[in-house]
Amino acid sequence: MSKKKICLALVGIYFSMFRGFGQSLPDTIYESKPLKLEEVNLVSSYYTQEGIHSAVTGGIGNEHVTDLANGISVKFVGRDMSNIKHTITAGLGLDHHTAASQAYVSKTGASKKDGTRVYPSLEWLRENEDKGSSFGIGAYYSAEYNYHSFGLDMSFSKKNKHNGQFDGKVNAYLDQVKMIYPSELVPASTVVSSASSGGEGKSNIPSSARNTFSASGTFSQVINKRMQASINVDVVEQNGYLGLPFHRVFFIDNSERVENLPSNRLKVPIGLRLNYFAGDRVIIRSYYRFYKDDWGLTAHTAEVEIPVKITPFFSVSPFYRFYTQTAVDYFAAYGKHLATDTYFTSNYALSALTSQYMGAGIKLTPPDGILKTHLTSLELRYGHYTQSTELVSNIISLSMQFK
To answer: pLDDT tens across 216-275, in order?
Structure first.
């Protein structure tokens, strides 16, 4: 689907939504309420990591990364004359990151060392609160120097009479990967000769498509006054160029090539969530996920978070997550691949590993706003991550909600 067709479709839905503000039910007439700004959310985070298994240099080398991310979202809410609630949420994110490994895309160490990612989003949700149903669509775009992504999703939900709810969602992401190769492995076809370019030789870098399609379903149920549970099943299919062209692989015979992975991947995660309200001040939130794909990777995730209300308006939320996975069929460490291998990678994100993530958050939500302003919620979270591959990272984030 072209971007032009997608934009026209969104415009059509936008205008049809506003036509609904002039409709009424024959037996009931409600007062329509035009879209009004309801809340503004600001999020900022700082991430840093250290490691010794950079995929850019074949599974060895510096993995130092820093990332500063900032995002804003604004939510508008209105009702039409049928008492249908309409919510439009617009967001904009901006990340700036540096990565030591990026300098070694070129063996001279002169490659681009940092990057900026911009990602706007637009979502519309239509809710019929009387029937307990909703329908929504969203559009997303992300751009950085070597990667562009455009996404669409459609969601729906329906409540039943027994305190249960089903949520469904389908997504499509259409991406373009800039084929930036290691300097010593650049294909001759991507270099424009000085004669044809009218001067010094320059790179004519092509892009390769990567598409991701997913469908998910979640059923949640209130079991009793203290317990809620849900189950989630996803099916994700990817096709196109699924590796990264600047990831080197070194073979047992000392030869060197660019990472090569299959052009299709099917993923099936299944998640189970159980929340238990242990009194008025403590909630125990537990989560387990099983994951399997057709590249040979199997993973398990177990997580628990325990928000504790110190006062009615101040809470502390410690959390812990354990994760383990097997390696994909195509992974081998530096210098371990055979020259006869069809597919190969030394990216340690696809290796066998275990990881732990732990930390805590604090949240302040006074009823009259913080210092009696429009700032209604302030949350600060810190997390420390360790991986058995000797990768360590830390992240601190701040989120603020204004109403």
So the answer is: 999 999 999 999 999 999 999 999 999 999 999 999 999 999 999 999 999 999 999 999
Cross-strand bridge partners of residue 272: 231, 288
Which positions ≥6 away from 292 have C-beta within 8 Å? 267, 268, 298, 299
Domain ranges in the chain are 3-402
Domain 3-402 is found in CATH 3.40.50.300? no
Q: What is the pTM of this model?
A: 0.88
